[in-house]
Amino acid sequence: MRLVSAGCRHHANDNIADFIEPGELEQLQAEVQAQMQGVLRALVIDTDSDHNTQDTAKRVAKMFVQEIFKGRYQPMPAVTEFPNVTRLNELMIVGPITVRSACSHHLCPIMGKVWIGLLPNEHSNLIGLSKYARICDWIMSRPQIQEEAVTMLANELQERVQPDGLAIVMEADHFCMHWRGVKDSESKMTNSVMRGSFMKDPHLRREFLSLIR
Ligand SMILES: Nc1nc2c(ncn2[C@@H]2O[C@H](COP(=O)(O)OP(=O)(O)OP(=O)(O)O)[C@@H](O)[C@H]2O)c(=O)[nH]1
């Protein structure tokens, strides 16, 4: 309700941490548990006598809220920014960072890897290496589609680091294609975002792409 009156978008891959008051996340998880119990009932699973599913609704609610979709409910991880004192302006690459996400359409897992390339300038902020993986995990721990996930990650890094160039490549397995539906277990999705000097300079782009192979 507060989200609606504030005009705040709350799509599957949006973060709503600013609207969660202390104690509300526990209430939200309890509501997910109750609704999940209803889903199991609708699936005609006798959770009273089936010892394997007695606590499934509780486990699934905890998994959604505290684990696999935590990037919707928790604030962005703290990121310390350091000034670029030595004026680094060479290509740097972080990766492969492991990606664990889920597709917005079927809530099936997306498992993959991300590579991040940055060309800082003297005004850029440098952030600790582990923070790339933390920010990535925060963005990916939501129901996503891959195209929007890489754009969200790029926007977040652009804002923090303000580099001259930013490149992101993501390669992932989509279990909605492997496990169900078309059942094509070999195909992967690869996409990229190239900004600033990676867009303008084909040599830089080639150097990045050759180093991540
Ligand atoms: N573009 C894009 N599509 C995705 C992503 N993850 C899953 N999908 C696709 O989203 C589509 C959802 O399609 P629908 O036709 O509405 O659903 P469906 O009938 O269950 O589709 P099938 O998977 O073909 O059985 C499927 O083709 C999925 O493969 C993603 O990250 N990006």
TrEMBL record:
EC number from the UniProt entry: 3.5.4.16
Keywords, alphabetical: Hydrolase, One-carbon metabolism
Top-rank taxon, per record: Bacteria
Pfam families per record: GTP_cyclohydroI (PF01227)
Keyword Hydrolase: yes
Pathway: Cofactor biosynthesis; 7,8-dihydroneopterin triphosphate biosynthesis; 7,8-dihydroneopterin triphosphate from GTP: step 1/1
Domain GTP cyclohydrolase I: residue ranges: 33-213
Catalytic activity: GTP + H2O = 7,8-dihydroneopterin 3'-triphosphate + formate + H(+)
Name used for this protein in its record: GTP cyclohydrolase I
Species assigned in the record: Roseateles oligotrophus
